[in-house]
Amino acid sequence: MRADPVSPDRLVLGESPRWDAAAGRLRWVGIEDRAVLWLDPATGKSGRTDLDTMPGTLAPYDGDRVLLATDRGFEVLDTASGRLGPVAAAEADRPDRRMNDGACDPYGRMLAGTTALSGTPEPGPLYRLETGGGAPRAVPVLDGLLVPNGLAWPEPDRLWHIDSPTRRIGLHVYPEHGPVGPLVRSIDTSDLSGDPDGMALDAEGNLWVAFWGGSAVRCLAPDGRVLETVELPVPQVTSVAFGGDGLDTLWITTAARGTDPDDPAPHGALFRCDAPVRGLPAVPWAGPSA
């Protein structure tokens, strides 16, 4: 399987593609580019909102509004006006860190981890944005992570999670309330090229994982077998999402970081690929009073 570039934007660090079913748009972020981007596949129209902060990930929310996890914490962006509104701070006393990849759980609560701006892995937590019982707050639910990345829930009480430097994808018990539970099993990707980064689940329960440095998205069975490989002409593949009306298109983000600026390859572009299976929809953020 091969993927084709579809966006003229060449991002230093493209990430977090999310299909917004209500809007019929794909949205994604440029972390170091400080931007949120969108594409309407039906019309070919696209747009970009530039920010004064680094967005690590996003979740659909309400109309033109999306929830972001940024270097300040959780914020709501009105993509039409460009206005940002704070929801909850995270690690406000740590200007050397920013929020990274994340996703909403089956209950509509956003989770995102943090990572060091230096690029040197340093242990930190996975946060969940809790909005019930008072002011919204970022609550640590899993600690000791180096570079927290992809999140996916095959069942409401199970969580797949990637900590990239370990090259493992762990399946955890996921209680409705309280911290993330113990590890059930894990997939070791050490024999595959690249480090696992972002991921998405298909309707059959398999994981589609982007491999940073691996020039590929690989479909892994829950037991770790490689079922499919999507090859890309660029090495730094960051994340993947299912989208389109039938959730049968793979949207793949990439990064230009660390590549030769004179290289004509589409580093940092958004790619698309026809998927052989349907995916699962992105869960929107439930809002501040959930």
Strand share of the residues?
Answer: over 45%
Radius of gyration: 17 Å
List the strand order in the largest sheet.
Answer: 1-24-23-22
Query: Spans of 5+ residues with little confidence (pLDDT < 50)?
Result: none
Kindly state the mean pLDDT as a whole number? 95
The number of distinct β-strands equals 24
Order of helices and strands: EEEEEEEEEEEEEEEEEEEEEEEE
Class by SSE composition: mainly beta
Q: How many DSSP H or I helices?
A: 0
Helix content: under 10%
Sheet having the most strands:
4 strands, antiparallel
Q: Quote the distance from N terminus to C terminus.
A: 40 Å
- Gross geometry: globular
Summarize the structure in words.
- The chain is mainly β.
- The protein contains no helices and 24 strands.
- The chain has strands at 4-5, 14-20, 25-30, 35-39, 46-50, 55-62, 65-70, 73-78, 83-89, 97-104, 110-116, 124-130, 137-145, 148-155, 158-163, 168-173, 183-188, 195-201, 207-212, 216-220, 226-231, 237-243, 249-254, 270-274.
- The strands form 6 sheets. Strands 1-24-23-22 form a 4-stranded antiparallel beta sheet, with no helix packed on it. It has a 4-stranded antiparallel beta sheet with strand order 2-3-4-5, with no helix packed on it.
- β2 (14-20) and β3 (25-30) form a beta hairpin.
- It is globular, with a radius of gyration of 17 Å.
- The protein starts with a strand and ends in a 16-residue tail after the last strand.
- The model has no long low-confidence stretch (mean pLDDT 95).
